[in-house]
Structures are given as structure tokens and as C-alpha cells.
Amino acid sequence: MTEWINRWAGSYTLTSCSYWGPQYFKTLNRILGKGFDTTLFVHKKGTVSFFVKKDELDKLGEFLAKKVQDDKEGAVKLLNKLKENTDIIMDMMDKLGGKIITLEEYSKFMEVFERHLAYHVFMKKTVDYLPAELLNEMLPRFKEARLYSEAVYSRTEKVFRDLAIVISKKENIEPELLTCLTQDEIEKYISGQVLPKEKALEERYNSCVLLCEKDKIQILTGEAAINLEKEIQKDKFNETVVKGNSVYPGLVSGRCRIIMDPFAEVEFEQGDILVTGMTRPEFVRFYDKAAAIVTDVGGRLCHAALIAMEMGKPCIVGTEKATKMFKDGDMIQVNATKGIIRKLE
């Protein structure tokens, strides 16, 4: 039976996912020597959960860890390429905002954007599979590259959202619907001002699944999307206690605040516990008040882990289901020493 792992989640466009899906196979194989054959994105009204098959994740992680064991200098070169590419893409994005880009601008951007995912995956996934001694030796290098490149995907999201706003004004279509354009549809619009039907975009925005098998994608909506989502998440919610990976120890209790969109107007008080799919820099306004941080996804170098270690906040990542097992407002206990979260009566 196939076991699916939720690797990241948060406020992302379906547009970005349509680029990343093929890149997880094609670009990772080209640059790293191994990628994912199958990836899956569940999209609902501007939030996305990304799933990969557990056996494929483990094979990739073990493959990348062996690359580091066999060639530490080569690993450092890949981390340096991540930083170099960060400088290039950030500078490029400063010049792209607020307009419909030309084919020439798009082609140059795609060259840099496309390869960034491979360097990012190497930096982020490898550390979860390194043996302890090698991890202790190499972690500072990986962490430095992680912090250096932190802002890239928040900025690429802004590029796609800004493009949706510009097209929206010209075509009189709600901008959130245009965040569901695929790579192919973006390219058709840039070259010929052609858009898919608004009803199709509305269906995708409300709920859809983007399934990528090797470098081919298909988008499922309606009953087909619901059934596939149920299939990949079955048997995950039968337990009374949620477990995950502790990245900073501590024992606290507080009110659960489930926040998937960092830009939403929500109530969050001192001592509340931030529970989310995964954090990004945009969650910064919650950190000082949070008694603890709990995420569905993430590893040793995820954003939540870095923030928790920096601020000394109890933190558990990789629970897969905390945002679904608990309700907003529940009183919960976070035992980040043991990696356990439970609801209090």
C-alpha cells in the first residue's frame, strides 16, 4: 500500500505548484541525479498541501546523504550554488513586479527559477538523512545556506500574485482565480493573451488536486479530487495523541490557534500555541506571543525549527495532522521534549 507523506503546506498559488511538479522530477534528476517520480498538490482557496510517496522520499534522502558522505566538497559547492542563485533570482524579481512580463524576461526568469528547486531540495532534505557525526559537522553549512536563501519562495509567490493582479485588471477576472493558471497557461497568455474559461479557474480555486507523474501534470476537480485526497490521507486520523519531531524542547499548555494564512486577520493572544501547516517569514507577527509552535510538516532546517531554536520556543514539526486533529480554540498541551501534543479536557 502506498504511504503518502505531507512534506509542506501553506499559502501558495496553484501556479507555483504547476511549475514545481515537473521540476521535482526533471530538474532534480538533471542537477542532483535523482528526483520524485510522483508528486501531488492539494489546493483549496489559496492554500496548498504537498504530498510525496514515502518510499520515494526515503530513497531521495538516502541518495543525497550518500552524496555528502562521498564528496563533502561537492556538497559545499551545491550549497554555494544555492546562495549564488539566490542573489540572481532576488535581483531579477526586483525588476519584474507590477507588469506583464515579456517573453524574453520570462525566459531569463525561468532559467534561474527552474534550477533553484534542486539546490533548495538538496539543502533542505539532506540533513534529515545524514548520520549523526556527519550531521554535526555539516549542519552549520546547511543552516547558513538555508538562512541565506530563506526569502526566495516568498518572493516568487509575490511575483506570481502580482502578475495575477495585473492580468486581472486587464481581463476583468478576480485575481485569486488567476493564481490557478498553470505554467502552460501563463506562457500562452504571455505569448498570445489567451486564458482558460473562468469557470474552470473557479473550480480549481475552490478545490482541486494537481497530480504530477514524472514531468506530466493533470488537474483533478470535483469528485475525482475529493476521492484522491481521501485515499492519500486515509488512516491518518484515528489516534488521540499527535506525534511529531521535536526541534526545541519544553512543556507548555495553551489555546490552539490554527493559522494557515499568515495574512488573515485572526485573534492571537500572548501564550497561544501557533498550529499551522508550515511557517514562513510572513508568520513573524505571531512568534513573540506564541508559547509554542506546531506544524504539520517540516524537518531539521524548516523555517519553524530555525525560529524556535533562535527564540527558545518549544516546537514540534512534521506531525502531518495537527491542523486537522485539533480545532481552533482547543486547549492543548505541547510536550516538545517528547514530541507529543494532546488535547486537554
Structure in words:
- This protein is of the alpha+beta class.
- The chain has 2 domains: 4-228, no CATH class; 241-343, Phosphohistidine domain (Glucose Oxidase, domain 1), CATH 3.50.30.
- It contains 13 helices and 13 strands.
- It has helices at residues 14-31, 54-70, 72-94, 103-125, 132-148, 152-171, 175-178, 183-192, 198-206, 222-233, 284-287, 303-311, 322-325, and strands at residues 4-10, 38-44, 47-53, 208-213, 216-221, 241-243, 245-248, 251-258, 273-276, 292-295, 315-317, 331-335, 340-343.
- The strands form 2 sheets. An 8-stranded mixed sheet has the order 6-13-12-8-9-10-11-7. A 5-stranded antiparallel sheet has the order 1-3-2-4-5, sandwiched between helices.
- Helix 1 packs across helix 4 and helix 2 packs across helix 3 (72-94).
- The longest helix is centred in the first third of the chain and has 23 residues, at 72-94.
- The model has no long low-confidence stretch (mean pLDDT 92).
